[in-house]
Design a protein that fits this description.
Layout (H helix, E strand, L loop, with lengths): L8 H7 L7 H21 L3 H17 L6 H8 L2 H9 L37 E10 L9 E5 L20 E5 L5 E7 L4 E2 L5 H8 L5 E2 L2 E7 L6 E7 L18 E2 L1 E4 L2 E2 L5 E2 L3 E5 L2 E3 L7
Parallel strand pairs: 1-13, 1-14, 8-9
Antiparallel strand pairs: 1-4, 2-3, 2-7, 5-6, 7-8, 10-13, 11-12
The structure holds benzoic acid and fe (iii) ion.
GO molecular function: catechol 1,2-dioxygenase activity; ferric iron binding
Family: Belongs to the intradiol ring-cleavage dioxygenase family.
Cofactor: Fe(3+)
Length: 290
């Protein structure tokens, strides 16, 4: 095939996939080529812009490390992560909605008993979190694995500290026989996503801020149910309608109730301020295989 020009190049590349035996790969790459070429045509891409794009993606790659995933950050800020989560977790009305996973989950966080002080020294106002895990018919889900992780009052996750020694504001719990759960965390605060790299520069250039509204992260899994990856957001947060990664869903916004002191849910009498958060999760039944 010779003498390809701007009107024939797209079809020529797609035709080159004719012998691809992996059907899914063929579908994905054919669509990618079609949309990529369509994008270049639509914006009338210049060579300087093409070079800038290559340099940007190179910088994104160079910013990645075992503790920093700049490509996921790029996907998050372009709304791709929210799109992929939404189309892969369509659920019946009544189920708790899913949202973005984010880059700060850690596999195998410390197992703690119900009621534990999950904060483990993380800076922030104590927050008693409690609720239940149920199925769509209201049945309690006993023994569900509840992973929770959150940023501290400085807006940083434990693993972001250079002097990281042990997990704080992060744990794995199991729901009680009646589906209940409770633990002591800290009040979440809004924080900026890491913005000292190429994604931050892009946000700046677009006149976009890097802030996420205050939230707690949860991953909840139990046999017979679809694993739920979600957040609980804090009502009244100034960034609820402009989350840098487009993760907010109204059904996930809850009232974090502030108390100046007094009797706490764990039976103690506290003379310092604390908050309480009640949130019930409803899991979707697992999809039947085949
Ligand atoms: C987070 O909530 O932890 C997060 C999500 C997306 C990008 C950066 C951080
Ligand atoms: Fe987060």
């Amino acid at each position: 095939m010779r003498n390809l020009d701007e009107t024939t190049i797209t079809q020529a590349v797609i035709a080159r996939h004719a012998k691809t035996t992996n059907r899914r790969l063929k579908t994905v790459m054919t669509s990618l080529v079609r949309h990529l070429h369509g994008f270049a045509r639509e914006v009338d891409l210049t060579e300087a812009e093409w070079v800038a794009g290559i340099e940007f993606l190179t910088a994104v790659g160079h910013t990645c490390s075992p503790t920093r995933q700049e490509f996921i950050l790029l996907s998050d800020t372009l709304g791709l992560s929210t799109l992929v989560a939404a189309q892969n977790h369509r659920k019946p009305v009544g189920c708790t909605e899913a949202t973005v996973f984010g880059p700060f989950h850690v596999e195998g966080s410390p197992e703690r008993p119900l009621g534990a002080d999950v904060a483990n020294g993380a800076e922030g106002e104590p927050c008693f979190v409690r609720g239940s895990i149920r199925g769509l018919a209201g049945e309690p889900v006993a023994g569900a694995v509840i992973e929770v992780w959150q940023a501290d009052a400085k807006g940083l996750y434990d693993v972001q500290y250079e002097a990281f020694d042990e997990h704080r504001a992060r744990a794995t719990l199991r729901s009680a026989p009646d589906g209940g759960y409770h633990f002591l965390g800290i009040v979440a605060t809004p924080y900026p996503i890491p913005h000292d790299g190429p994604v931050g520069q892009l946000l700046d250039a677009l006149n976009r801020h890097p802030w996420r509204p205050a939230h707690l992260h949860f991953r909840i899994s139990a046999p017979g149910y679809e694993t739920l990856v979600t957040h609980v957001f804090r009502d009244g947060d100034p960034y609820l309608d402009s989350d840098a990664v487009f993760g907010v869903r109204s059904s996930l916004v809850a009232d974090w109730v502030h108390h100046e002191g007094g009797p706490a849910p764990d039976g103690r009498m506290l003379d310092t301020p604390f908050s309480t958060l009640d949130f019930d999760f409803v899991l979707n039944p697992a999809r039947k295989e085949g």
